[in-house]
């Protein structure tokens, strides 16, 4: 269903309550996100039985404040097989992306991460934002991004988004409606 569909959902979302991922070690994960990204550890739930299913599966569920009302959560599942990743999806595809306020903050974040032994890729220029990329101790790819686009650029992207999705759905080839992003990135 595209945004052009006449059907409307009766649901009105108020934002993302939290996004949850698996971790290898809850304590080490909390400490890493506090130290590397300045998140605040806010809450933990621990149960022996999953509340939604009743299944016996002890877990620790930790929550970190990522700013702006956004919460990142992790589950440590000691009775489950070691965590892996989808081998059919490239490592760069699934990632957590967080916003920073400026390019200077992005560069400072890169320096902080590298000073703490984290390998960082970027900054990468995407036309309307710049990003750096790295992996957390669980193997999750993380992106920090700062917006640099203009209101006119964002409006144009909103305008062509339905056209691009429709073309992609028909052809499975990259539509060219936003090629100007690449030109801006290479200036």
Automatic annotation (TrEMBL):
The keyword Acyltransferase does not apply. Keywords: Aromatic hydrocarbons catabolism, Dioxygenase, Iron, Lyase, Metal-binding, Oxidoreductase. Residues 15-147 form the VOC domain. InterPro entries: Glyas_Bleomycin-R_OHBP_Dase (IPR029068), Glyas_Fos-R_dOase_dom (IPR004360), GlyoxalaseI/FosfomycinResist (IPR050383), VOC_core (IPR037523), Xdiol_ring_cleave_dOase_1/2 (IPR000486). It holds the Pfam family Glyoxalase. Its cofactor is Fe(2+). SUPFAM superfamilies: Glyoxalase/Bleomycin resistance protein/Dihydroxybiphenyl dioxygenase. Belongs to the extradiol ring-cleavage dioxygenase family. This is Catechol 2,3-dioxygenase-like lactoylglutathione lyase family enzyme. It comes from Sphingopyxis panaciterrulae.
């Amino acid at each position: 269903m595209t945004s052009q569909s006449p059907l409307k959902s009766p649901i009105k979302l108020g934002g993302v309550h939290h996004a949850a991922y698996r971790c290898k070690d809850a304590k080490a994960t909390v400490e890493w996100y506090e130290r590397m990204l300045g998140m605040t550890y806010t809450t933990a739930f621990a149960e022996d039985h999953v509340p939604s299913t009743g299944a016996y599966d002890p877990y620790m569920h930790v929550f970190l404040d990522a700013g702006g009302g956004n919460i990142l959560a992790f589950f440590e599942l000691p009775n489950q097989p070691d965590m892996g990743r989808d081998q059919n999806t490239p490592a760069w595809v699934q990632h957590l992306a967080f916003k920073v306020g400026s390019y200077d903050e992005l560069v400072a974040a890169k320096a902080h991460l590298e000073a703490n032994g984290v390998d960082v890729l970027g900054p990468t220029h995407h036309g309307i934002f710049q990003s750096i990329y790295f992996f957390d101790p669980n193997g999750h790819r993380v992106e920090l991004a700062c917006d640099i686009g203009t209101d006119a650029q964002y409006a144009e992207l909103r305008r062509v988004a339905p056209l691009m999705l429709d073309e992609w759905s028909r052809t499975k080839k990259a539509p060219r409606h936003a090629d100007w992003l690449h030109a801006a990135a290479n200036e």
